């Protein structure tokens, strides 16, 4: 929101309005016009500003599960946005350690983190995967046994 004296008002984390007139005025609109969401989980095609669809979500799922499994985000995210983007676009896709994780987990993550969006599995393919079905049955059985 811009007032008559050209100060921009932002909503603070406390829910109040605060006037601001510095570099953030120029940075926020450019950032919001370029990306919506967390850049760390964006797929390569989304970062390149290409057309994207559900495969971008599969990429994000792969990163989230990689992080859940290993306890670490697979890219170096604390060295700046440009460095992170270059890693996602130029480096090989991350893969879990074959020594520490099951072949099924590694294969699943590798499939989700294909740089080519068309090479990633669809949601239907993931849901029909025997390893997913096996895991979901195991989870359901545990919930039933707790009752």
From TrEMBL:
What SUPFAM superfamilies does the annotation carry?
Protein kinase-like (PK-like) (SSF56112)
**SMART domains hit by this protein:** S_TKc
Catalysed reactions, as listed in the record: L-seryl-[protein] + ATP = O-phospho-L-seryl-[protein] + ADP + H(+); L-threonyl-[protein] + ATP = O-phospho-L-threonyl-[protein] + ADP + H(+); L-tyrosyl-[protein] + ATP = O-phospho-L-tyrosyl-[protein] + ADP + H(+)
Ranges for domain Protein kinase come to: 1-133
PANTHER family the UniProt entry points to: DUAL SPECIFICITY MITOGEN-ACTIVATED PROTEIN KINASE KINASE 5, DUAL SPECIFICITY MITOGEN-ACTIVATED PROTEIN KINASE KINASE 5-RELATED
Family statement = Belongs to the protein kinase superfamily. STE Ser/Thr protein kinase family. MAP kinase kinase subfamily.
Q: What is this protein identified as?
A: mitogen-activated protein kinase kinase
- Source organism per entry reads Brassica carinata
From the broadest rank down, the organism's phylogenetic lineage runs: Eukaryota, Viridiplantae, Streptophyta, Embryophyta, Tracheophyta
């Amino acid at each position: 929101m811009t007032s008559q004296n050209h100060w921009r008002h932002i909503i603070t984390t406390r829910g109040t309005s605060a006037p601001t007139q510095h570099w953030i005025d120029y940075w926020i609109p450019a950032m919001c016009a370029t990306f919506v969401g967390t850049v760390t989980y964006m797929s390569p095609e989304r970062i390149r500003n290409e057309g994207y669809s559900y495969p971008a979500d599969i990429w994000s799922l792969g990163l989230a599960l990689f992080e859940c499994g290993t306890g670490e985000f697979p890219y170096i995210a604390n060295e700046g946005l440009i460095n992170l983007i270059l890693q996602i676009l130029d480096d090989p896709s991350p893969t879990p350690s074959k020594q520490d994780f099951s072949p099924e987990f590694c294969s699943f993550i590798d499939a989700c983190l294909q740089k080519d969006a068309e090479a990633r599995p669809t949601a239907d393919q993931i849901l029909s995967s025997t390893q997913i079905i096996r895991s979901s049955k195991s989870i359901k059985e545990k919930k039933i046994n707790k009752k």
